[in-house]
Design brief:
- The protein is 0% helix and 48% strand.
- The protein is mainly beta.
- The strands form two sheets. A six-stranded mixed sheet has the order 2-10-9-4-5-6, with no helix packed on it. A four-stranded antiparallel sheet has the order 1-3-8-7, with no helix packed on it.
- A hairpin with a 6-residue loop joins strand 4 (32-39) and strand 5.
- The N and C termini lie far apart (39 Å).
């Protein structure tokens, strides 16, 4: 079964940091772009960051640029999202999903969604 599993979420104070992981099972990540998305209560799912299969092309949502860093370790079949300077508005369930080779902005272009990991930023 082709599956992505997110982990690393939790409760953190404003200004704190978390590192999310997106681990693949049943397939190799080598050929896939991986996108991170988030969905807050009552809001639509939005793109946070994406990394192409080669790792050369990376993009970030304007709201997280300069604070979040996406990376991939194909040897570990895992993509990471390092989140620093977290704000209450970053609170959401974070998901990862895959797409062949290149990133796209729309969540509908991605498949194999994980179950999500909750990130809560609160004092």
């Amino acid at each position: 079964q082709l599956q992505l599993v997110e982990s690393g979420g939790g409760l953190v104070q404003p200004g704190g940091s978390l590192r999310l992981s997106c681990a693949a099972s049943g397939f190799t990540l080598d050929f896939y772009a991986i996108g991170w998305f988030r969905q807050a209560p009552g809001k639509e799912r939005e793109g946070v960051s994406c990394i192409s299969s080669s790792g050369v092309r990376i993009n970030y949502a304007y709201s997280v640029k300069g604070r979040f860093t996406i990376s991939r370790d194909n040897a570990k079949n895992t993509v990471y999202l390092e989140m620093n300077s977290l704000k209450p508005e970053d609170t959401a369930v974070y998901y990862c999903a895959r797409r062949f080779r290149q990133c796209m902005s729309s969540p509908s272009e991605f498949v194999s969604w994980g179950q999500g990991t909750q990130v809560t930023v609160s004092s």
